[in-house]
């Protein structure tokens, strides 16, 4: 743990780092492959929409039923002609969910189930969901998602800039597509709990992205007044300085969600837990990935299309080439890059590791090492 903490501190100070932005084409390719797989899953398998979206009926039997889940599924299919989802509840009763049936036939299905299960018809509770109500639920979900996206773009454009807002929007669409595609591939049922999970992960995804963007905004103040770093260099520095924070928050969030998914859903067979926890688990992982590998590199790509950033990159590369030809360190001390008419803090706006020349005479009479 101490080594991990030391690594995090070194990443934050810029002493070590990984070139995330420089290898962005690799991450773009990986994301495109994952996204295509998710889209194919949606196109081929489709989403297993729950009864709330399709309409149908839910039958609840009395307590302490002796019939097994598999037996009840067979009875429900014989009675309705449709596949059924059966859950055994904690009190021993059975919850039989049949989607896509005509609600007018619910009484006949109820009578048949009562006969097969050997219980009185009056003891089976039936809840009916019409298809029009399911359409309303779906429309409200889409409206909520659209409003959320618009508000996010407006806020990020005001708080940061439109390029960061666009990159965050692309990352959110990336996360939603992957999550829904995995739902299609796994075959989990889409319920209102799934929608809740999707909306929740959007907030988590934005949290990690905004943390990196805030660091990037702070470190790129007056970036054009120096010739040591390009915008991509600073973007990469921002990712590395917040990397451990993003990893720690994601892992802490994934642990309880994983417990819900694998213990609550897998061993206890709790359907609603499956619906929420799968979307949260996949979405949290995808959100952490997109904030590091998609959003920030995309911002760097967009920013370096600006004329000012193109000129800065040209100056930085020319100075590095000159330093390499002269055998000097390619990343000189920041103070050496300041012009006489520039404030001292302008050069310090871009934070990074400093490789000091060995021959420099530092600190004449001052512990700080700065010259008067």
Briefly summarize what is shown.
This protein has 372 residues and is α+β, with helices and mostly antiparallel strands. It has twelve helices and six strands.
Please characterize this protein's 3D structure.
The protein is α+β, with helices and mostly antiparallel strands and 372 residues long. The chain folds into two domains: 20-49 and 133-303, Multidrug efflux transporter AcrB transmembrane fold; 56-129, Alpha-Beta Plaits (2-Layer Sandwich). The chain is built from twelve helices and six strands. Strands 3-4-2-5 form a four-stranded antiparallel β-sheet. Strands 1-6 form a two-stranded parallel ribbon. A hairpin with a 5-residue loop joins strand 3 (84-88) and strand 4 (94-99). The protein starts with a helix and ends in a 25-residue tail after the last helix. Residues 332-344 have a biased composition (Acidic residues). Residues 112-304 form the Protein export membrane protein SecD/SecF C-terminal domain. It is a multi-pass membrane protein. Keywords: Cell membrane, Membrane, Protein transport, Translocation, Transmembrane, Transmembrane helix, Transport. The chain crosses the membrane at residues 26-44, 141-158, 165-188, 194-216, 247-270, 276-300.
């Amino acid at each position: 743990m101490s080594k991990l903490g030391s690594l995090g501190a070194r990443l934050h100070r810029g002493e070590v780092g990984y070139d995330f932005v420089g290898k962005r084409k690799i991450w773009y390719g990986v994301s495109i492959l994952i996204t295509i797989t998710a889209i194919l899953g949606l196109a081929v398998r489709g989403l297993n929409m729950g009864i709330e979206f399709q309409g149908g009926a839910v039958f609840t039997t009395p307590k302490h039923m002796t019939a097994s889940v598999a037996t009840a599924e067979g009875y429900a299919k014989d009675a309705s002609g449709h596949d059924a989802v059966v859950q055994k509840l904690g009190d021993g009763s059975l919850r039989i969910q049949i989607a896509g049936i005509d609600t007018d036939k619910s009484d006949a299905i109820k009578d048949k189930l009562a006969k097969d299960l050997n219980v009185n018809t009056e003891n089976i509770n039936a809840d009916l969901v019409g298809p029009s109500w399911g359409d309303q639920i779906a429309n409200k979900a889409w409206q909520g998602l659209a409003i959320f996206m618009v508000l996010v773009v407006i806020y990020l454009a005001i708080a940061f800039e439109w390029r960061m807002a666009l990159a965050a929007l692309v990352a959110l669409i990336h996360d939603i597509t992957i999550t829904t595609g995995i739902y299609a591939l796994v075959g989990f049922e889409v319920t209102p709990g799934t929608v809740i999970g999707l909306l929740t992960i959007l907030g988590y995804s934005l949290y990690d992205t905004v943390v990196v963007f805030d660091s990037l905004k702070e470190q790129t103040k007056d970036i054009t007044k120096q010739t040591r770093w390009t915008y991509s260099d600073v973007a990469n520095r921002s990712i590395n300085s917040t990397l451990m924070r993003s990893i720690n928050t994601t892992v802490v969030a994934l642990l309880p969600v994983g417990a819900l998914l694998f213990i609550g859903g897998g061993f206890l067979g709790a359907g609603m837990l499956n619906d929420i926890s799968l979307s949260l688990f996949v979405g949290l992982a995808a959100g952490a990935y997109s904030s590091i590998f998609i959003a920030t590199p995309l911002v760097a790509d967009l920013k370096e299309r600006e004329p000012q950033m193109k000129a800065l990159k040209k100056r930085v590369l020319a100075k590095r080439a000159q330093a390499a030809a002269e055998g000097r360190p390619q990343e000189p001390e920041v103070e050496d890059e300041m012009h006489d008419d520039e404030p001292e803090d302008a050069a310090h706006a871009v934070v990074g590791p400093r490789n000091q020349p060995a021959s420099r005479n530092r600190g004449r009479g001052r512990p700080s090492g700065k010259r008067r």
